[in-house]
Amino acid sequence: MSALPDAVKWNADGLVAAIVQDALSGRVLMQAWMDREALSLTLSSGQACFWSRSRGEIWIKGATSGNTQTVREVRLDCDGDAILLLVEPAGPACHTGAESCFFQRAGSSGEWQSTEPAVTGVLAALGEILEQRKLAPPDESYVAGLYASGREKILRKLGEEAVETLLAGQSADAGELAHEVADLWFHSLVLLADAGVTPQTVLNELATRFGVSGLVEKAARTAAGES
To answer: Using CA atoms, how far apart are residues 205 and 68, in angstroms rounded to an integer?
Structure first.
């Protein structure tokens, strides 16, 4: 079998299109270009590296912004003229601050319209807001008030929301169930923020469980002394 770069059909400029996709959510984040060196660096370092056509140089995604992309998998399409990177992003992919560069869609009026954020974007945004609330006066913010009251208060509130979710689950009102689950998730995020844990950490944990039997995963945690 030939070396990986040799299997790529490089264009006349020695480049190949690289599509970047969130390995967890499946959302397409951006498109860039790679030359042989960028591909080799990506494979060896595990970090997304590209070729900047405007600057005429290699660039490591997030080298200056901190919004790096840890590569989980590299794929080549059937024709060999495009590469797909499945990554774990540490921040937004777009230089505008958007989670994905593809945040505009063709509207019926013939103009490009901004799209709604992905679910993962909502969680990240909420996580950032909850962090900021740690600096807010307790009498001006509900979340800041919870922080000021201490962990026990947060846990009690989370318990209350869990009970309300269970009660809603016994009814046939889908809207009420969605409302209560949203409250439960929100207060779970407050607990995470108070403990210094980001939503992405939880998503990463879920990602490690893909393809693993729930029984096997439970047995492994039990063997390790977890509940």
So the answer is: 19
> What H or E segment, with its residue span, contains residue 19?
strand 16-22
Residue with token string 């590569």? 71
Q: For residue range 149-205, what is the model confidence (pLDDT) as tens digits?
A: 999 999 999 999 999 999 999 998 999 999 999 999 999 999 999 999 988 888 888
Confidence tier at 117 by pLDDT (50, 70, 90):
low
In angstroms, the Cα distances linking 172 to 135, 165, 223 are: 40, 13, 39
In which element (H, E) is residue 33 found? strand 28-34
Structure tokens at 20: 């970047």
- pTM tops 0.85: no
At CA 220, angle to CA 215 and CA 224, rounded to 5? 145
Q: Please count the other Cβ atoms lying within 10 Å of the Cβ belonging to residue 134.
A: 13
